[in-house]
Amino acid sequence: MRRKRRKWLALVLALASGGAAGYLALNQMQQPLAARPAAGVSMVRVVVAARDLQVGSVLASGDVKLVDWPTSALPPGYASDPQSVLGRGLITAVSANEPLLAAKLASKEAGGGLSITIPEGMRAVSVKVDEVVGVAGFVLPGTRVDVLATLTPNSGREEAATRVILQNVTTLAAGQTIQRDAEGTPQTVTVITLLVDPEQAEKLTLAATEGRIQLALRNTLDMGQIDTKGADAGNLVQSTAVAPARPAANRGPRAPRPAGGGTSVITYNGAERTVTTF
Prior knowledge:
Layout: H1 2-30, E1 43-49, E2 64-70, E3 123-129, E4 144-151, E5 161-180, E6 186-196, H2 198-210, E7 212-218, E8 231-232, H3 233-236, E9 264-269, E10 272-277
Antiparallel strand pairs: 1-2, 3-6, 4-5, 4-7, 5-6, 5-8, 9-10
C-alpha cells in the first residue's frame, strides 16, 4: 500500500515539475528578445535623432538620444555627447535613429532657419506664384525646376516672347504668406524660394518684375542643360496662305476643232447633237 502511494506521489511531482518547466519556457519565448551586442564587439555611445527632423530645426534635448554603435562601423563626424549638438541647426533633414553628424549641423552661432541651408556664394530668392506657376503644388522643398520668363510687348518689343532663363534650380522652401492688395484686403499668396547664384538672382528678379514667370518641374535626377531658341508669338503658329482651287465648270465635251478653216455651228435636238461646218 505504501509502495503504491509512493508511485502516485512521484508521478504527481513529475507532472507538476514538467508543467512548471513548460510554462516557464513558453513565457520566455513570448517575451521580446532584447538586442544584445555580439560577444567581443566593442561598442560606443553615439548621438542619433530621436524622431524625424526637418531642415532648419534647432536641436533640443527631446530631439536626440544615445544608442550603442559598433566601433568598427562608426560614421565620420559622429557625436558621443548630446551637449555637443544641442542648440545647433540642421542643414539637412534627418530621420529617426539617424546619427547626427557634423556635416549635417550648422554652428551654434549660425542658429536655425532657412539661412543656414544656403551654401557659401549662393542666394535665396523668393517669388510669388499661383497654382499654375507653382505646378499645382508639386513644387516642394528639395525639388528642382526650370524658370521660364514671358515678356509682353512694349515700346522696345513688338511681340510677346518666352525664354528659359534658369535651369536645374533647387527649391529651398514653398509656403504661403498673407499680403494685402491695393484695397487693403488680406490675400493668401504662395511663395517659392529658389537657391540661385547672384547672377541668376538678377535674372529672376527682373523677369518677375517685367513679365511673368512659370516654373517647370523636372526630374530630380536629370542634371542636364538644354539650349533652346525660345518662343515668339509671331513664330508660335506659322500659317501659309494657299489660294483655294477653283472647281472646273461642267461644260460637257468640247466640240472637235475642224481640220481646216471655216465656221462651225452646233445644234441640239433633244439629246442629239449636230455640228455643221461652213
